[in-house]
Amino acid sequence: MIKPKVLFVNQEISPYLENTYLADMGRYLPQFVQDNGKEVRIFMPRFGNVNERKNQLHEVIRLSGINLIINDADHPLIIKVASLPTVRMQIYFIDNEDYFQLKADVVHNKKPIADNDERSIFFARGVLETIKKLSWRPALIHCSGWFSMMLPFFVKRTDYKNNPFFMDSKIVVTLFNDDFAQMLDVNLVKKLKVDGGTQKDWNFYKEPTYVNIMKAAISYSDGVVLASDNVNPELIEFAKENKKHIVEYSPDKDKFFSDINAFYDSIIVIDED
Questions:
Q1: Where do the H-state alpha helices sit in the chain?
Q2: What is the pLDDT of residues 88-122, one digit of tens each?
Q3: Handedness of CA 238, 151, 24, 184 (dihedral sign)
Q4: Which structural domain range is residue 199 located in?
Q5: Model confidence pTM above 0.85
Q6: How far, in Å, CA of 51 to CA of 55, rounded?
Q7: CATH number at residue 115
């Protein structure tokens, strides 16, 4: 029997970062999905506050070595991997010396990191390029945490949409209560336009607030998961207006994960290759 392939693209995963609800969901949802008959791959950024020695990260030379051009500059892609304790799952880490050396994740000294926009673009494109190198065709891509929300744009609005690895992939996004007040760099549209997109996309990104970035990701998605009982109501209303399927939050983890997995089953197209 062919196992459906599910790609998890997470901003945080425990135990590599603090045990937030976002990080815990990044850790345990993939395991639940794998235990229920699916093949999974899991990616997160190798933020500078991830302890490489403690968590036994090591570089995968055969996957590294690509240069990604962002804002007219070359940035080498480095892929590292670690194994989750006690379960048979690996985590792939997207790394780069320009973007991920600061000992922080998305905030440093209580302020957003200035190049978070480019870092999130690099993360999204790094995940997709690595999947191509792995020759692994995801039936579904699930993005969690705002830092991962550039990936739906690249899958649905750039040349990746015509790539056989992604052209049939369904997109699911998780909404948390992870709002931030400041905008990303106001030149984000210019940085994205070189890869594709339309005027409709630029209408989201010309004012790159949290709400607008998340609305863009929702618009490219096949469904939305509410992972909190206090998600921004404007985003929930936007998802409803755009007729996106919504998996409601439940504090009962088993029920919540079962509902998510059942939604996967309802939209996944089995890859026969």
A1: 21-35, 52-55, 116-134, 151-157, 188-193, 199-205, 210-220, 233-241, 253-267
A2: 899 999 999 999 999 999 999 888 999 999 999 99
A3: negative
A4: 5-267
A5: yes
A6: 6
A7: 3.40.50.2000
